[in-house]
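Hi V.,

Quick status before I head out on leave. The structure for the redesign project is tokenized and pasted below; the design run finished overnight.
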């Protein structure tokens, strides 16, 4: 009953993790995998294996480590899991079904985009937490068992004698009120950023309705109705901004 008052007294409390999409996609994936209705392609299994490697990485053992060092190690492990999920989502080698799982995983772990260390350049992508807000480390670590089980199943070899079988991914339509930024990294530690314009009216600010079948992402401008497909955005540059639905 008093939780509202307690929350008001904790200005740096981290927001809850965005796990709606992860619960939906993870539950669906594990059901399909268990029923033999999803036998992952080699590219999906390789990507899942790489994420699994990060998920199961032990924390470093450091003699006499300070509490601050241990906290950094815990956040860095979550940071690396997110980076691996984003890398394989954006690389474009996986099937739409696996892309949906990777995007949902990245969405849930987005607070660690800039924790423990944000990208240094001013133009670098800024996803996740506002500066100075603590990451919900314990909540992130609480996801590790379910994520490990999911990616273990995805990375497992398909039974002998049966070829890959990939279920269709559902098309998502999600609103976005603000801008989309396309990032480039022309050199080490150097970032560029460009704001996407509507192909119809040239507007940058939206609001947009994003539709995605995990092969193509289309930005529908709510102001003029035009659809923009040649935006050049990586999947993560869209999905890490969107509401978790
Ligand atoms: Zn427009």
């Amino acid at each position: 009953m008093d939780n509202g008052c307690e929350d008001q007294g904790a200005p740096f409390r981290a927001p809850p993790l965005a796990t709606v999409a992860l619960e939906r996609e993870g539950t669906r994936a594990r059901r399909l995998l268990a029923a033999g209705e999803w036998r992952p392609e080699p590219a999906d299994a390789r990507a899942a294996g790489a994420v699994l490697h990060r998920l199961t990485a032990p924390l470093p053992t450091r003699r006499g480590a300070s509490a601050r060092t241990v906290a950094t190690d815990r956040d860095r492990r979550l940071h690396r899991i997110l980076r691996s999920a984003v890398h394989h989502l954006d690389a474009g080698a996986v099937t739409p079904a696996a892309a949906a799982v990777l995007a949902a995983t990245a969405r849930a772990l987005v607070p660690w985009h800039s924790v423990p260390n944000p990208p240094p350049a001013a133009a670098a992508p800024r996803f996740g937490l506002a500066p100075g807000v603590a990451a919900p480390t314990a909540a992130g670590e609480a996801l590790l068992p379910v994520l490990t089980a999911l990616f273990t199943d995805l990375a497992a070899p398909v039974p002998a004698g049966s070829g890959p079988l990939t279920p269709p991914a559902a098309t998502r339509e999600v609103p976005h009120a603000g801008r989309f930024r396309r990032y480039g990294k022309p050199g080490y530690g150097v970032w560029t950023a460009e704001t996407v314009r509507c192909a119809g009216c040239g507007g940058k600010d939206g609001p947009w309705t994003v539709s995605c079948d995990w092969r193509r992402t289309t930005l529908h401008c709510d102001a003029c109705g035009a659809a923009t497909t040649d935006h050049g955005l990586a999947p993560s540059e869209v999905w890490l901004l969107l509401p978790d639905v």
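Above is the designed sequence. The beta strands are 172-176, 181-187, 190-195, 208-212, 217-221, 227-228.

G. will cover questions while I'm gone.

Best,
W.
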